[in-house]
C-alpha cells in the first residue's frame, strides 16, 4: 500500500470515528489539502521585501524554548531575538476578516479557538524566553508589515561607503 493509499485509509477511519468531518466533495478536499503551513503567499512577499531591504533572517526555524515549548515562527531574526508570524485571517480568527465557519461548525469553531489559544501561549513562551514577537495579519499591506518588523528591530547602521581618495574616486582604481 503506497503513501497516498495509507493516508486515504487513515482519513477514512478518522471520518468514520467522527474525529473530523468528511469533505463535502473532492474539490473541497483538494482545496483544504493545498493549504500550506509555511511559505504562504503573504509570508513569501514579506520575506522577499525584507531581503531586498537588506534584512537577513531565518525562515521557519524551530526554536526550542526553556519552558519546553517548541515554536516555528515564519521569520526569525536570531541576533535580535525577534520572531515574526504572518497569520492567516481564517486560521487565526482575525477580528476584522475572520469569519465563523458555516459548514461543520462543530469541528471548526473549537479548532480555530485552539489556534488562538496556541498563539497566546506561544507569545507568552517566547516573551518569557526574552524574545520579541510580531504578529502580522495576512490582510496587512506590505508597507505596514515592513514597518511593524522594522520598528521591532534596532535601528540599522548604513553600510560603509568605499574609501575615497583626494580626487573623490574610490581608492585602488
Number of helices: 5
Look at the structure and give the mean pLDDT: 82
Gap between N and C termini: 67 Å
Number of strands: 6
Q: What is the assembly state of the chains in this entry?
A: single chain
Shape: elongated
Query: How would a textbook summarize the main sheet?
Result: 4 strands, mixed
Helix content: 40-55%
Taken in chain order, the helices and strands follow as HHHEEEEEHEH
Strand order of the largest sheet: 1-4-5-6
Radius of gyration from CA coordinates: 22 Å
Which stretches are poorly predicted, pLDDT < 50 over at least 5 residues? none
Secondary-structure content class: alpha+beta
Residue fraction in strands: 5-15%
Please describe what this structure looks like.
The protein has 173 residues and is α+β, with helices and mostly antiparallel strands. Helix content is 40%, strand content 12%. It is built from five helices and six strands. A hairpin with a 5-residue loop joins strand 2 and strand 3. The radius of gyration is 22 Å and the shape is elongated. The model has no long low-confidence stretch (mean pLDDT 82).
Amino acid at each position: 500500500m503506497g503513501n497516498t493509499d495509507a493516508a486515504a485509509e487513515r482519513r477514512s477511519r478518522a471520518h468514520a470515528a467522527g474525529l473530523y468531518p468528511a469533505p463535502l466533495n473532492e474539490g473541497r478536499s483538494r482545496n483544504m489539502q493545498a493549504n500550506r503551513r509555511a511559505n504562504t503567499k503573504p509570508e513569501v512577499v514579506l520575506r522577499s521585501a525584507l531581503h531586498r531591504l537588506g534584512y537577513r533572517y531565518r525562515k521557519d526555524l524551530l526554536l526550542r524554548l526553556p519552558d519546553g515549548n517548541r515554536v516555528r515562527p515564519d521569520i526569525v531574526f536570531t541576533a535580535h531575538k525577534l520572531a515574526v508570524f504572518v497569520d492567516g485571517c481564517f486560521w487565526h480568527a482575525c477580528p476584522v476578516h475572520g469569519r465563523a465557519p458555516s459548514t461543520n461548525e462543530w469541528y471548526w469553531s473549537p479548532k480555530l479557538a485552539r489556534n488562538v489559544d496556541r498563539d497566546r501561549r506561544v507569545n507568552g513562551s517566547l516573551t518569557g524566553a526574552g524574545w520579541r514577537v510580531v504578529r502580522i495579519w495576512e490582510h496587512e499591506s506590505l508597507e505596514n508589515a515592513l514597518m511593524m518588523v522594522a520598528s521591532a528591530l534596532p535601528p540599522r547602521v548604513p553600510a560603509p561607503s568605499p574609501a575615497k581618495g583626494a580626487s573623490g574616486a574610490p581608492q585602488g582604481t
